[in-house]
Every structure is written in C-alpha cells, then in structure tokens.
Specification:
Layout lengths: L2 E4 L2 E3 L11 H5 L2 E9 L2 E2 L2 H14 L8 H15 L4 E8 L16 E7 L6 H6 L1 E5 L20 H12 L4 E5 L5 E3 L4 E6 L2 E5 L9 H12 L4 E4 L3 H5 L3 E6 L3 E8 L2 E2 L7 H15 L1
Parallel strand pairs: 7-8, 7-14, 11-12
Antiparallel strand pairs: 1-2, 1-6, 3-4, 3-5, 5-6, 8-9, 10-11, 10-13, 13-14, 14-15
C-alpha cells in the first residue's frame, strides 16, 4: 500500500498533509529525490541521499535528520508499505513560515517520504521507442540555480514537457541558454555514434543522475568508450542511437527526434544491451 512519512509520523496518503504556509508550497523552496526499490531492495539509496543532503546544503537548508536516521526511515517505510517494487519520493522543504521570503522565519524544515508505485512508460514503449521534439524552453541558467541542486523548482521542465504534449511527443530535448543539448524533461540523454557513447558533461548544466552514472559504469565495464562532452542537435539528429535514462524511465530509446528517424527507428544494439545490464544490476 502507499504510505507517507511526514515529520515523524507514518500516514496513509489520504491523511498526509503539510501547512499551506510551508515555503515548499509557497515558493518551491526545498529539495527532493526520486528513488526506486526493486525486489524489496532500495537501489543506490546512499547515492540518492548524499545528493539530497548536498542539494540542501547548497541552498542553506539543514535537514533535521542525520544521514543514518534518514537511511533507516527509508528502510522502515519500505517494510511498512509491503511493496517490493516501488518508487520513493523524498522531499525536504524549508518548512512553514510567514508570507515573506526570509528563510529564517521557517523554524523547522518539513521532511516527507512518499512510498508508492510508478509506471512511467508501458512496456511496449521500450520496444517502439519515444517520439521526441526539441523544447524552446531552456534549462535554467547554471549561474542562477545550479542544475546539480535537485530543487522543487521544476517549472521550466514542466513547461518543456507541455511543449512536448502539445506537439504530441513523448519526451523533449532541453537545451541550455546557448543552445547546447542538456537533458530531457526529467531524464538524462545519451547518444551512440560508431559504437561509442556520448552524454552531456555535468559542467554543461545538467542534473547528474544516479541512473546516468550507473549506465556510464556499465558501459565502461563492457569496454565501451564513454565521452562526457558538449553536444548539439546535429549530434542528436545524426546519432546511430539516442536514449534517455532516469529513475522512473530507467533506459528507453528515442525512435525519432524533431522528425529525424534515429538509426532505423528500432532500439539500438548498445541501448538494448545497456538496458538489459541495468535491469540485471538493479535486481542483483
């Protein structure tokens, strides 16, 4: 069953509530992580939680629970839910305050752990591939808010997602303010060319995904050359394979991008291999 932790209490999702004065609601002031459990084991929990604490520190937010206790709570919540394969959304907000911006008025951060099911794409989509368009909404400038902070401020990505919906596409490619390829609306992007793997570098203004890092490790273990570099749309259009990675999506290929067929439109050899390896990894 779905279950939610809110500030010391485990509750059914229908009873889980936060204050309307919480700055996470009023201003998007907070951070979060999306985590998966497979077969009753949480995948790379430490990596996710370390990123959560780093994101919080970067925005001057002190999480009122130490890493060890936060780890225990996730394991407890998974056991309480009775779910084995599920999605975990961990959120820390600035907490309730007044209607001003001053974070000092928020005395206690709000800690939320949601344990529920997720199915981002039906299985046939992994065979057919995604229809993708380039969004005109750019990713936030990295000097304004570091993309390495997984914050509650997701409106640019939502606006890009809306562009994809209006265009009857499944996913979008987001560019930075200079027109350089960054990521999908909620996933990292990879291209394959002549058997080698390319993905935007972290310093180019992307969120460093946990699934992204796992796929890079799997590729390198398989002796595939991996380049973390600058990509533009030409590199995407002319790639042999294009795929996205994310906690929800795992590994899924693009059939076409902006009307350009990628390869022959079917899932590529390296993409299929990395998806198989990733699914084996999360079940290991």
């Amino acid at each position: 069953m779905s279950i939610v932790y809110v500030d010391g209490k485990w509750l059914p999702k229908e009873q889980a509530m936060v204050s309307v004065f919480d700055h996470g609601l009023l201003y998007g002031d907070g951070v979060f992580e999306g985590i998966r459990s497979y077969g009753g084991k949480i995948f790379r929990l430490r990596e996710h939680l370390e990123r959560l604490y780093d994101s919080a520190k970067a925005i001057w937010l002190t999480i009122p629970i130490d890493l060890g206790e936060m780890t225990r709570l996730h394991q407890e919540g998974l056991k309480r839910s009775g779910l084995t394969d599920c999605y975990i959304r961990t959120v820390v907000t600035r907490g309730p305050g007044d209607l001003g911006l001053d974070p000092r008025k928020c005395r206690t951060p709000t800690v939320i752990i949601i344990i529920d099911r997720i199915a981002l794409w039906p299985e046939e989509r992994y065979t057919q591939g995604l229809t993708v368009v380039t969004a005109s909404t750019p990713t936030p400038h990295r000097e304004s808010l570091s993309p390495r902070v997984k914050s509650l401020n997701y409106l640019p990505h939502i606006l890009a997602k809306i562009e994809g919906i209006v265009a009857n596409a499944d996913e979008v490619v987001m560019l930075d303010s200079a027109g350089v390829v960054a990521e999908g609306s909620g996933a990292n992007l990879f291209v394959v060319r002549r058997g080698e793997l390319y993905t935007p570098a972290v310093h180019s203004g992307i969120l460093r995904g946990v699934t992204r890092d796992a796929v890079i490790e799997l590729a390198q273990a398989a002796k595939v050359t991996v380049h973390e570099s600058t990509l533009n749309r030409f590199d995407v259009y002319t790639a042999d394979e294009v795929f996205f990675t994310g906690t929800g999506a795992e590994v899924i290929h693009a059939r076409n991008v902006d009307g350009r067929l990628i390869g022959d439109g079917t899932v590529g050899k390296l993409t299929a291999s990395l998806r198989e390896k990733f699914r084996a990894l999360v079940r290991a």
